[in-house]
Amino acid sequence: MKVKICGITDLNTAQHAVSYGADAIGFVFAESKRRIEPNSAGEISVQLPPNIEKIGVFVNETRERIEEIVLKAKLTMVQLHGDESPAFCNSLSVPVIKALSIESEKDLEEINRYSCEMILLDSPKGKYRGGNGTSFDWELLIGSDLPNKKIILAGGLNLGNVERAIQICHPFMVDVSSGVETDGRKDVKKMKVFLEKVKNTSKMEEIEK
Question: What DSSP line would sit under the chain, residue for residue?
Fold first, then answer.
């Protein structure tokens, strides 16, 4: 089970996340309290191992601006949380994660429109497109005939619910931000415990198969 720690704003936090087993880190370039400047993200990216995905989060940004930030921030993937069309996603130079807000079973049908590298299933839109610390009804995924795409589960994951979320949804990756924060800042102890829980839960699932 892979883990992405999103909303990274400093090198120390990024290095702790990687040392604890994170497979990807996320930089937010959309409106958010966790927003980071592209050059600052780039300074962090170059000091992380090459096998770690560096993912930029955008909302309804222009293609030109995304491509500019990809270069400055040394991104390996982009995550799109806005109203981006399948054609827009396919036009970018790096692999794309398309985020979809899930309120009902019907929203899952949107997955079929996209041929992106991965699909991120997130909670309904709040103040921001993502990063609102709320979850959707995971049981909507039980018995659903999801296409053969890599599913990332996001929205309201934390130390208390991530094991259950994995057991219900069986995602390819889980994505956490506010769930590993204390007073609005990343908490390295919470990150460590979160990553341990995810890795242990996925190991147990493999054993039980």
Answer: -EEEEE---SHHHHHHHHHTT-SEEEEE-SSSTTB--HHHHHHHHTTS-TTSEEEEEESS--HHHHHHHHHHHT-SEEEE-SS--HHHHHTSSS-EEEEEE-SSGGGGGGGGG---SEEEEEPPP-SSSS-SS----GGGGTT----SSEEEE-SS--TTTHHHHHHHH--SEEEESGGGEETTEE-HHHHHHHHHHHHHHHHHHHHH-
So where are the chain's domains? 2-208
What CATH architecture is 2-208?
Answer: Alpha-Beta Barrel (3.20)
Query: Of 6, 89, 116, 169, which is the active-site residue?
Result: 6
Q: Please identify which of the residues 10, 89, 107, 122 carries the catalytic annotation.
A: 122
Q: What is the pLDDT of residues 89-140, one digit of tens each?
A: 999 999 999 999 999 888 998 998 999 989 999 988 655 554 556 788 899 8
Let me know if 89 is a catalytic residue: no
Q: 169 catalytic, yes or no? A: no
